[in-house]
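Re: the request from the purification team.
They wanted to know what the chain is likely to look like in 3D before they choose a buffer screen. I agreed to run a prediction and write the result into the notebook, where they can find it.
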Amino acid sequence: MGATGHSVRDQLVALVRRLWDSPTFTTWSSTATRFLSLLLVLPLLLRRLSPAEIAVWYLLSTIIGLQTLADLGFAPTFTRLVAYGMGGAKDATDVPTEARSSVAQSAANWQLVEAVWSTMRVIYGRLTLLAVVALGALGTWALVRPMNALADPGRGWISWGAVLAVSATVLWANAYAAYLQGVNEIALLRRWEALTSIGAILTSFVVLLAGGSLLSLVIANQVWSLIGVFRSWQLCRIVAGGRFRLFQRRGIDRGVFGVAWPSAWRSGLGISFSRGVLYASGLIYAQVAEAAALSAYLLGFRFIQMISELSQAPFYSKIPALARLRSEGRFDEQLTVARRGMRLAYWTYVAGFVTVGLLAAPILRAIGANVPFADARLWALLGLGFFIERYGAMHIQLYSTTNHIIWHVANGVTGIVYLIVSLALLQLLGVYAFPVGVIVGYVGFYSWYAARHVYRTFGVGFLDFERSVVLAPLALVLVYTSAVFLV
């Protein structure tokens, strides 16, 4: 019995360790900490802050989210190039296009990895300068009307200044995250991100509990953003035997930049027309809506955004591994890993979407929130639109492991359609115009365009790839949406 007990205990310990080290589990835990903020911070925030302050808080969060646009697509591109180097690629162009019958595990090419990092340092330094100017101009324009609705606009503008100043440091630190993901240390990065997020959540909770203002809340969160930058720098110096500490500043490597730039600008343009136009809905609505209506929409948008981010974990945590499998020519294994990650991602999204749709409104009423949750039909349309976006986005990420970037086409066309439809319908449908624009844009082009490239690359058909992946969760989303409109 004793031996058996020890055996069971050892197996449980081994299971816990595997889960703790799993990139999917740790990415989930990192994003799940944001849901912890909904349990601790959101109830206090919605009760202590006025509708105008809540609107400014979420607009600042939206502008912070736009930092990814300033990246211009370099982060995913550099992550792939580092992963290629770790897979033994001879140089930045060494990406196989044909499957290999037998694959010998190649040693990491640290010379290539160092060249990628050296290029990153220079690129991100220049991007940071441009981003501060661009975000400063756009953010100031978007915040003028909401700030004037505050009881103390001066403290609101100080909050915006703190966000802009810290954003410069955070943007530069994207290089650290790209390196860590490229060397396949996603699990470690996400674990520390989760711990940092918990610190920010607990600090925000204490600030609100003590009666802190919008300015106090913003400063508390920005301090933790700076702590996160220091954390990522330290992790880079520890992983992979500390090779990072030996890297020399060699400036831009022309070979690396020659491969990175075509992919990066396409990715950056694609991100601008996808996340950029989606985030723009809040900035546009802020120019015409009253504080209460704006707060309700931004709250609903924030919820669906967090669910979408949580659902990314099972698939996005596999991207460096997928890039490495591509570099090693193991295409069948790459397809298997991708389908498994996508399936779990869809079900994670559906679970979060339906649960929030059923429980959010009554819970907010019960806690006496100063703003209501988005109405059921708006929530259903947002959920359907973002589900379709997830479908196309995961296929684009999978196809991007070939280093042939189509983001600029997929998101460019989709973004233009979204803007035309939503702005044309804004006066007629009000806030509903935004999710309708998302659905039209993603169904009309993005989703099938992205998926078609994957099917052609792997030589599979729609049903071959999707029968056990997307059909069932899509059916559930459609049933829920139909029920909301019919009942």
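For the purification team: Residues 110-148 form the longest helix (39 residues).
Please add any questions underneath this entry.
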